[in-house]
Amino acid sequence: MLVLGITASSQIDLIRFATPILEDLCQRVNETVQLRAVDGTEALCIAKAEPSRDLRVHANVGRRRPLYAGSPKCLLAFQNAAFIDRCVPARPVPLTDNTPRSRRLILAELERIREQGYCVSRGEVSEHQVSCAAPVFTIDHSIVATIHVVAPAFRIGDSELDHIIRLTTQSARRLSTALGWGENQ
Question: Which residues form the IclR-ED domain (predicted)?
Fold first, then answer.
């Protein structure tokens, strides 16, 4: 029970620090923004900010996604090898036609995410959505969450995606810094 209380308390602190950053990012990109954390072997949406526009991606706090598909791969990419091994099935269940269909492809994508510092997904979880995610780190350089921007695919061309990537990674660094992380530690 004590561990549960500590976990809940630190998640509340994370959400408290994240909320103004999520709201600012949402306003700047005018798309849905989510904060996701690992829960078991899934990605769990723990906070969100949604734009006021009529056509947007609706996010539910508490919604779970597999870690091996879509932008939740960003959460998985920065975990230890044993955890990654547990979360990436030998035969991944496809969620759409764009979901990676082999363990080898997923592991290669995780390596690319680690190298570039963010993840982009085009229809891997929901066919008509594009998402971008960037990692949030703590003082000990462990990943604690990811910030995601999710948008209808028809609205996101290359220049819009570049803009979203830049703002998402900046927001994740701001939250990481607020949590005590330093790039040069």
Answer: 1-181
- Structure token digits, residue 14: 């994370």
**Ramachandran angles phi, psi of 139, nearest 5°:** -60, -30
CA atoms within 13 A on the CB side of 98: 14
Task: Please tell us whether the domain made up of 2-178 is placed in CATH 3.40.309.10.
Answer: no
d(Cα 154, Cα 175) in Å, to the nearest integer? Answer: 29
Q: Evaluate whether 109 touches 53 at the Cβ level (below 8 Å).
A: no
State pLDDT tens for residues 153-179: 999 999 999 999 999 999 999 999 998
Residue ranges of the domains in the chain?
2-178
Q: Is the pTM of this model over 0.85?
A: yes
